[in-house]
Amino acid sequence: MDNKLDIDIYDFDKTIFPYDSGTLFFIRSMIHYPWCLVLLPVISVAFLAMFAGLISFTQFKKICYIYIPFIPKERAVISFWNRYEKLIQPWFKENDRFAVVISASPDFLLEEIAKRKKFDALISTRHSKKTGIIVGENCRGEEKIRRLYEVFKKDEINVVDVYSDSLKHDKYIFSLANGKCFQIVKGERIEFNYSEVYSD
In the beta sheet, which residues pair with residue 99? Predict the structure, then answer.
């Protein structure tokens, strides 16, 4: 492990932040910019299509963000974090290791809180700055690993602890931990043994 950068990996939603930030931002946008409500029928149809297996979750998310060009995005993001910044878990970065946040939430939404809370690195779902539509793949599951190694060379980092609320979706990042794995349940960190949870 000599000469490697020790990092901790954190999921964002329901991990260091207690809610799904993208969903909360969507709801807040519908309230503050009610003209966006005209798009709800389209989004509802997309949800039903995803539920029926006709489109993927990523395709559904792309449709969800069609409201972004109709709001003052930068101002809305700042207002959002002015209200919700205080909800970031106090134990985030408490051990002072290099903190890498990897999230499926939008880059345009998380970049502001990353600056405020001094994330050492942020890896999130890429969105078009103009349209808000997802560019590339949703940063979820195995895609989190691929994106991590876009930013860091595999042999240059040592993943110490990993934090996430989702045992189902974040098996892949948990598998990298050389220190501890923590499932986050209602803000509480529950340590677990990877080999006891996953059969591989």
Answer: 8
47: nearest Cα among 33, 73, 66 = 66
Closest CA to 80 of 127, 33, 10, 11: 33
Question: Of the candidates 13, 8, 7, 24, which has an alpha carbon nearest to the alpha carbon of residue 184?
Answer: 13
- If we measure between CA atoms, which residue out of 146, 125, 144 comes closest to residue 136? 125
35 burial level (CB within 10 Å; 0-12, 13-18, 19+): exposed
Are 81 and 112 contacting, i.e. CB atoms less than 8 angstroms apart?
A: yes
Beta 188-192 vs 181-185: how paired, if at all? antiparallel
Give pTM, 2 decimals: 0.93
Question: Quick one: tokens of 50?
Answer: 């995803």
Alpha helix (H) residue ranges in the chain: 21-32, 40-51, 57-64, 73-84, 107-117, 142-151, 171-174, 194-197
- Mean pLDDT of successive 10-residue stretches along the chain, which has 200 residues: 88 98 96 96 95 91 93 97 98 94 97 98 94 91 97 96 96 97 97 91
Per-residue pLDDT reduced to its tens digit, 95-123: 889 999 999 999 999 999 999 999 999 99
Neighbours of 70 (CB within 10 A): 14
Q: Decide: helix, strand or coil at residue 5.
A: strand
Contacts for 74 with CB less than 8 Å, ≥ 6 apart: none
> What is the rounded distance in angstroms from the CA atom of residue 49 to the CA atom of residue 199?
33
